[in-house]
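User: For my dataset I need records formatted as: sequence, then structure tokens, nothing else. Please produce one.
Assistant:
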Amino acid sequence: MKHHSIIELIERKRDGGVLLSDELQWIIAEYTADRLPDYQMSSLLMAIFINGFTGEELGPWTEAMLRSGDVLDLAHIAAPKIDKHSTGGVGDKISVPLAPMVAACGISVPMMSGRGLGHTGGTLDKLESIPGFRTRLDGDEFVAIVEKHGLVLGGQSETMAPADRRIYALRDSTGTVPSLPLIASSIMSKKLAEGINGLVLDVKTGSGAFMKDEPSARLLAETMVGIGASHGTKVVATLTGMDQPLGVAVGNANEIDESLDVLAGGGPADVVELTYSLGADMLTLGGIEDTREAALARLRKAVESGAAMERFQEVIAAQDGNPDVAGNRSLLPTAPLRYELTAPDTGFVTKCDARDIGVAGVRLGAGRERKEDDVDHGVSISVLAKVGAAVDKGDVLAVVDYRDQDRMDAARPLLERAWEVGGAADEPELIIGHIA
């Protein structure tokens, strides 16, 4: 491969120029081989963040990340292999109940998830709040668990899309997360490395999303659907609102608790609605059912029969976690101190800002401010009053379980400004549209 000057490439991208296919492939190869230091890749990522990518750049960049490591071969698994991915939100635990529900219906789900990114939570961080649960799996183990259980809930191994794994961590700590080309290429390189037949995307828009407005979210969805098509993989996307958190639970262990509620047939209405909607997409994309109505009925049966919960317990055990957590939620970690945020006035909740609540969670320790930070799985925010709710002055809007007073002091101003109470307000739309 021809050698290039990284400084010249950074400068060209900084000044709005276009990087060629062989240059992009060289950058990824050099970074993966540790011949390109983090500080230079960070500089390039900022240039990409500011100036974007052309269509001619995005394809080779994504392909280079995909080919930077191993690509799974799941062709020997007869069941349709469908995965789901969310672009990131606050309180977004949908993958946790969704994957076992869909697997119990006959879809094979080789789910490779990520950690918290910026103010948004990560599925891996949530799962690791289950005692013993192990998300670091090598390729052979990842495949073996899918073969046996029709489901795996793992992270990127050292050898699968390693360039993306490292760039993902850099973006989280260098202010380059909300970039359409970096989000699209990160998601699609990981997912295409799984050897899947199809992918269902939950593309979020709103204050708590990386795409703040609907046109940007729609463009991101269309970009990822296009990347999938260019690789012969069917991708469908749902646009969903993220101006306020999903469900009640924001954190890690408490989001697992809420996910278990959904698998047991309960859970908050918005979490249930979105879980079943995306599940119907996965079943129809995989050809298990021809209509959404039939798919929804099959999903309900998987929950009502206990098959979905049983599948989740099987996978917890297969990944060295304690499956007893399904019946004994006290096994999940909690924080010892409590703070209650109360309504300043009587009226209706007119704002319950997802981003402020998400950042407050990070300040409490539920997420990372630096890539090497540990996550406190027990700290949590319970969102008790959302947009449209009637409240009296002094009613509890949120309950915070925390461990460190300094962290609580840093989070409190964000929580106080996250809520506004005033005249009547309509509940925001959850499912905005579909793209295929």
